Structures
1.
Amino acid sequence: MRAFSYEKPASPAEAATAASRNPEAKFIAGGTNLLDLMKLEIEAPTHLIDVNGLGLDTIEPTQEGGLRIGALVRNTTLAADQRVRRDYAVLSRALLSGASGQLRNRATTAGNLLQRTRCPYFYDTAQPCNKRQPGSGCSALGGFSRQLGVVGTSDACIATHPSDMAVAMRVLDATVETVKPDASTRTIPLGDLHRLPGDSPHLETVLEKGELITAVTLPKPAGGTQIYRKVRDRASYAFALISVAAIVQRDGSGRVAIGGVAPKPWRVEKAEAELPRGAKAAASALFADARPTHENAFKLPLVERTLDAVLAQARS
Amino acid sequence: MVAAGACAALPAMPGAARAQPVSRGEPVTASVSMSVNGENRTLQLDTRTTLLDALREHLHLTGTKKGCDHGQCGACTVIVDGQRINSCLTLAIMNQGVQVTTIEGLGTVDDLHPMQEAFVKHDGFQCGYCTPGQICSSVAVLDEIKAGIPSHVTADLTAPMAVSEAEIRERLSGNICRCGAYSNIVAAVSDVAGRQG
Ligand SMILES: Cc1cc2nc3c(=O)[nH]c(=O)nc-3n(C[C@H](O)[C@H](O)[C@H](O)COP(=O)(O)OP(=O)(O)OC[C@H]3O[C@@H](n4cnc5c(N)ncnc54)[C@H](O)[C@@H]3O)c2cc1C
Ligand code: SF4
């Protein structure tokens, strides 16, 4: 691990300013992704800004009848919150399907959204990877790509975003609140937070240098039957091969977001219009532009069948 | 290919204590105080030192084990302010003022914690390397169920929590046992849960 200096600011604005002062600074929250990557020197900040202790760790009701989740709320706390369990069950379920009890006790809302890909070549510093080292090439194209993306990918990168939580937040129409170093704030719809890779896969979000996530806001409860179904190689403690987050209403209408298939939670308006017609119609709209590799083409029928099971569960 | 099991090199330990960063790339040290197994400890550490390395290398509490050093195996599990965490994925300096309980703090050879006793009784280990992490995790798991925290296998998110074999297995999935002592670990934890009522 490279050496770094460390500070623990007292307010979100101070944290953002501190980050803008040093181009090699990084925020650290739970540390469960950043420290892992720092040990491998995939991340090598020379300054760490500890954002624990900024008072961003509460879950408050909003005037609109929703919930405002502080950026530092731990994954365990969020999953266990009675309001989330009752009104946003898909979010509790997604969180509980991710990582382990130990990790969820530390992992935070913002850190989870900004965790980096689990592409094995991104982790292997001996291999070319455009995300880790821009311009070096993509080892996954033509390599082992079973776990990687099938849609929204590019010739430069086919990595997926690994978060379960983000998929549920996407289907719930969450928005992300931030503060910038100049103290201005903005609200970003969750669907706009992550960029598609195009020819610059190292740029993963629309956040600017020093921009700090302060909260994630959920609109008022969407009702319906809320389901998160994760398909993985082990029954527990594994990243998703694919996952389906769905909110299905009595009349068969609903919303659906897919995890494990794209560089961001994958949600397509047209597919939702097809939901009442069933999984096949919805899946073909979701994957109209899919470009799977021969190793991960199985993800397309897997999503369709999982969605079918989810819709059946919602009806029963 | 993935870093599973690959131990990153130990960070270089500081020579003389320095308060401020000097120049880029040079080690930086900082002071941290925490309560470890009920005793107040203050350490001057390289900022890179994980809580795990602070416990093992600086406080010589070698009960807590380093397995993968990447949060994947759970051997480094300790209890911080009542919650189990992977001590390899948190920096010591981020843990200013916390209360840490390690396996040494749960019980001693002459005065075993009920969970330690149950692991012995049910043969919940073979080589023993993952055991301190398993036991710290198990103690915290029962507290989590008591506190009403749901898990992936909890059927009804709004009903009261109950201990079951499925719950114990799911909640302990972050602790890997290469000897495969899982059945006996589950028996040990169920035993303690039953006695706690
Ligand atoms: C073994 C293992 C298994 C896992 N399995 C799963 C899984 O199945 N599903 C899943 O979804 N996840 C899984 N995870 C990932 C885990 O969920 C993430 O590591 C965690 O959510 C990251 O949160 P953190 O607070 O620890 O982030 P950190 O590591 O502290 O930070 C991550 C990134 O976010 C940035 N950041 C943090 N807070 C802010 C902020 N407020 N504003 C701006 N930037 C910020 C940091 O600078 C850093 O770049 C797993 C992790 C491990 C180690
Ligand atoms: S898919 Fe993306 S992350 Fe993986 S090797 Fe290619 S460029 Fe790197």
2.
Amino acid sequence: MSLLTVDRLCAGYGALRVLHDVSFSIEEGNVTVVLGANGAGKSTLLRALSGMIPATGSIELDGYELLSGRRRRPIALLGIGHVPEGRGTFGGLTVEENLRAGGYHRPRGEVERSITEWFELFPRLAERRDRLAAGLSGGEQQMLAIARALMARPRLLLLDEPSLGLAPKMTGTLFDNLRAIRERMDMTVLLVEQNAHLSLQIADDALLMTAGQVGPRRPAIALREDEQIRRAYLGA
Amino acid sequence: MTTFFQQIVDGLTTGVIYAAIALSLVLVYRTSRLVNFAQAEMATLGGFLAWQLSDWGVPFPLAIALAVAASFALGATMERTVVRPLHEAHNELALFVISLGILVVLINVEAWIWGYQVKAVPLVIDGPAVSIGSVLVSRQKLVIVAVAIVIAALLFVLFQRTRFGLAMRAAADNQPSARLLGLPVNATMTLSWGIAAAIGTLMAILVAPQQFLQPGMLLPVLLYAVAAATLGGIDSPVGAVIGGLIVGVVENLAGTYVPGIGQDFKSAVAFLIIMGVLLVRPQGLLGSKSVVRV
Ligand SMILES: Nc1ncnc2c1ncn2[C@@H]1O[C@H](COP(=O)(O)OP(=O)(O)OP(=O)(O)O)[C@@H](O)[C@H]1O
Ligand SMILES: [Mg+2]
């Protein structure tokens, strides 16, 4: 069953149109990776989905149309979490406060439980819970940004290049964590990633994006084998 | 020695006023990235409201409460109507010009309604000055200090102990992220402007007997408050308080002790010292670095 269905989505920045009639759908419970060159419009696609930029067309989340109605409800309340490019943690807030902000709309008791849970999964964050987020390393900030988005218990998580700027070892840890999260939570993920090698390993499906358009959905496994893809994205 | 302590205490009691206005500037800056030069005049307008109500026979405490409430509403309305659209369009220059415009309009409106004749605002407390050791402090100043401490404590509780306060800090820190998490960003901005205006008005009423209520009453204070907020770090509420106290004390001591300077040049000395600090720490004592990065 598809959780998200996007139809003829157009979006951009002011006069600049970046997405041209994008249509695709993603399956509930799956990890779908979006691959594409720099400037293809991957981040723009995620921004349009989460309402950071205006868009036209149709975005249906579990049958609910996000683009109808004059005012969009906050996406966090609709069950979408977005970890933006560049992380966007609250540098002047402590690690724990960042998590609390993520759980803003959930009851207090649940927030406490979730914080404990994420600190178990990310021990590095637990050790730094009272430190300001600005003082964390890039990898720690990325973990924090993801954990913060997960505090809202999203049904759909949008992840924009989580491995950006991370050392290979840190990237490995990050993907291990993503796998652990997947096992723990019943969640659908739309992942934009430069690291095609790792992302195709954890993904079920893949979408290729070129110049503001999205190609047909294909199984990740097929792309791993595809000679053209290997040359373009896997550096083989 | 007595003079020295007296100067310190005088400096602190003046500094509290700078700190309060600096605090309102910081609250507004954090949400709208605007140093609102109209802040002090909005406070003075609140002072006029309180005076007018009391002149019409409303009991003074009630007049104060009404004026503070009206200022809160005015501040909140300004944010909703003129400030937010420009802030969302990232039009900093237009915002700055609008804030200067509001300053001028308020001065003219006050002058038009109430004229330039000084209005006698009653003291909230009367009686002989209190002596603490060898130092003398007027009762009204003690009230001002007490009120400032209560304001600071309430703000601390709001920011550090409440969910909404967490949202206010998060929204000030990174607005796009706060929106993505569904935090009530717009409400935090409106409330910040309301609180800032309310604090200003309360202070304006309390200092009016000594500063003489007339249009532009707090403009000299505004200058010091801007300096104090910059010194403390324009995005740091704690910094604003510390900056205000430092500016108050430095200004007083310079006037008394720097040879050949006297009362006329004491403000210049205060500003020179602040400039020195800012050359070393552009973000101010407690400000975050990103604020000065452009
Ligand atoms: N904030 C912005 N304002 C104006 N134009 C933008 C903005 N962000 C991106 N663009 C433009 O939109 C196009 C797509 O950018 P986008 O960031 O979506 O690409 P991307 O696929 O995420 O690239 P990358 O892999 O480098 O992150 C680019 O041509 C870019 O110049
Ligand atoms: Mg991108």
